[in-house]
Structure to design on (159 residues):
């Protein structure tokens, strides 16, 4: 369904069992900080609301979305981390830089999850402008951070 027709935060969290024993790593890009901090607040709030212990949630900052892949790898290689959530925002500019960053970020995050056989969640906004980003970071389309956190919890339940 098109994002314009629903809130990203209207995800189904029913059926998620106790996640208090799991440890989560959240890797946050500092670039587009207004957006990524809102995404982080959403992810953190959702994990806690679902029953995660605050002391089992560890944050790592990286400079930008391109660096999320290596940050995710550092988190995922740790045996005490059960799932990794990546949060970033890439906004379309006037050059093809957007395409390269988005492709590298998506493929890299996918590769990390497969390499370490644990959930590594893609919570990266790829928008045309700042307004679209804010609409998806707690605005009219919900908060992609909420969705990423719920997805991490669901994936741990599946495994």
């Amino acid at each position: 369904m098109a994002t314009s027709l629903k809130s990203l935060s209207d995800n189904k969290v029913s059926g998620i069992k106790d996640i208090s024993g799991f440890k989560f790593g959240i890797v946050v890009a500092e670039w587009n900080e207004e957006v990524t901090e809102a995404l982080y607040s959403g992810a953190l709030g959702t994990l806690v609301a679902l029953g995660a212990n605050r002391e089992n949630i560890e944050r790592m900052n990286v400079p930008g979305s391109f660096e999320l892949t290596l940050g995710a790898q550092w988190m995922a290689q740790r045996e005490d981390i059960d799932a990794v959530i990546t949060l970033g925002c890439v906004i379309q500019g006037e050059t093809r830089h957007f395409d390269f960053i988005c492709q590298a970020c998506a493929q890299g995050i996918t590769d990390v999850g497969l390499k370490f056989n644990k959930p590594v969640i893609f919570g990266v906004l790829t928008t045309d402008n700042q307004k679209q980003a804010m609409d998806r970071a707690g605005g009219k389309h919900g908060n992609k951070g909420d969705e990423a956190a719920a997805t991490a919890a669901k994936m741990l339940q599946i495994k």
Q: What stands out?
A: The longest strand covers residues 83-91. The chain has a mean pLDDT of 92. The radius of gyration is 15 Å.
